[in-house]
Amino acid sequence: LLDKIEHLVTRFREVETLITDPEVLLLDEPFAGLSEAEIDEVLAVLGEQTHKQTILIVEHKISKIRDLVERVGVMVEGEMIAAGKTDEVLNDPRVLKEYWHMVD
Questions:
Q1: I want to staple 73 with a disulfide (CB 3.0 to 4.6 A). Which of 4, 32, 44, 83 is the partner?
Q2: Annotated active-site positions, please?
Q3: Diameter of the chain by CA atoms?
Q4: Which has the higher per-residue pLDDT, 94 or 99?
Q5: CA-CA distance, 66 to 64, in Å (whole number)?
Q6: Structural contact between residues 30 and 15, judged by C-beta atoms closer than 8 angstroms
Q7: pTM score, two decimals?
Q8: Could you give the 3-state DSSP secondary structure of residue 41?
Q9: Residue 17: pLDDT band by 50, 70, 90 thresholds?
Q10: Would you list the domain boundaries of the chain?
Q11: What is the pLDDT of residues 72-82, one digit of tens each?
């Protein structure tokens, strides 16, 4: 029950933040603890907001935000290893090595 209450409080805070219409929206792992359906709902709302404000998202599920963002930065152990246009960064050899373990 406590988990559900905490989840509802978090969702309420997210809605409250959107209502105040800030110039910059900071989101720290907005999909944590959400079902796929809930993630889709959040993505739909964020998709509407991207034309209205700057959104900074800290998220481990890159596949979920790939189509949402124009630019992305990737950090490893507190160090920014790549930043720029999403497709360029996600194909960067350092990102492929550190995030996807695809390059030796």
A1: 83
A2: 29
A3: 47
A4: 94
A5: 6
A6: no
A7: 0.68
A8: helix
A9: low
A10: 1-64, 70-104
A11: 999 999 999 99
